[in-house]
Amino acid sequence: MTLLADRYRLEQPLGQGGMGVVYAARDTRLHDRPCAVKVLATPLDDLDARQRFAREIAIAAGLRSPYIVPVWDHGALPDGRPFVVMPLLEGESVGQVLEARCPLDPDRATRLLDGVLLGLAEAHACGVLHRDIKPDNIYLTRTILGQEHAVILDFGVARHENGDDAITASDMLVGTPTYMAPELFQGARPTERSDLYALGMVAYQVLAGRPPFSKRAPVPDEVAVLPPQQRLSWMKLHQPPAPIGTVSAALAEVVRRLLDPSPAQRFARAIDVLLALRGTPEGARALAPLASLVENAAPTVRMDPAALDDFTVPSVPDLPLPVEVGGPPPAAVPTPSAPPPTPPWPTPDRPLNLPDGGPATWLPWLVGGLVLLGTGALVGMLLR
């Protein structure tokens, strides 16, 4: 069977997204370790898709949160199509969960939101905006102890906060309109608050069992004739969603503030939402203290947007070695010569030094030496 990059054995496709196809695979160099391989599926001459794919790899590889799917490897097929290797997650996406079981138990939903917020806090601390938070990009798996664990997927349209605008060169919105913040429809630059708005859309859906904005909701006649995206934008700005009646007032207020049409009225940072969740009855029951999570967190490193733009996937079947092969050997480090061994007996330049510490320390040594001398003298007399 042909191996991808002489290493990964593809088993079956798991799904297809906007840019790539994901396969279940095995790493033959690591005892057939299960993994997932995402291969770019767009035409080779689609330079924009290739750059997005490369940037997704660069961003995900720079994030260290356990709530963000990591990158294990990357490379390119012989025909030049890039691929990326990630862990093979066992579980289901939030989108799949909502289709089967909706709404979720408030405590379970709160734990789900907490995991996504911890992942976003790491990304935002590194200067990265996800820009496409939605149920299909949140995966629920379990730890070795059986605890449910939310992981953020797909950084394919992610950008550095100082990078590109929310509108592409072709004037197309980047992201999923249903979950996008209303200001992005008007051409505003994405911010941390727009990521949090998208999470507020997810929060409302998992807690209420329905989207906050319905296509069938009544709107003024002049709005009803607008294209779907403009009508949705108008609803987000002018029609607040109905209150969630199945949760505490405190948790409903957290969701309401996440969905505030004015960015200035929303939570500014993911860490603020994490704190607010712990102030709700659901959070007090379901969530660990934030201090313990912060103490165990890995250090974050802010990313350079220029470095993300310059990142490219190597167009070779395998990754290059991280060190140059065949170069001159490193210069030998001189090793100082060892000093000559010190004789155990006294010499003119090294008189006998008794150990410190008083008679209790050196008296046994003196007695032992006298006994040896006496024994040697007695043996000499017997041999005569």
Structure characterization notes:
- The chain has helices at residues 47-61, 94-100, 106-125, 182-185, 192-208, 221-224, 228-238, 249-258, 270-278, 281-286, 290-295, 305-310, 359-383; strands at 8-16, 20-27, 33-40, 73-76, 82-87, 92-93, 128-129, 138-142, 148-152, 159-160.
- The chain is an alpha+beta fold.
- It folds into 2 domains: 8-87, Phosphorylase Kinase, domain 1 (2-Layer Sandwich), CATH 3.30.200.20; 92-307, Transferase(Phosphotransferase) domain 1 (Transferase(Phosphotransferase), domain 1, Orthogonal Bundle), CATH 1.10.510.
- The strands form 3 sheets. The chain has a 5-stranded antiparallel sheet with strand order 1-2-3-5-4, with helices on one face. Strands 6-8-9 form a 3-stranded antiparallel sheet. Strands 7-10 form a two-stranded antiparallel ribbon.
- β1 and β2 form a beta hairpin.
- It starts with 7 loop residues before the first strand and ends with a helix.
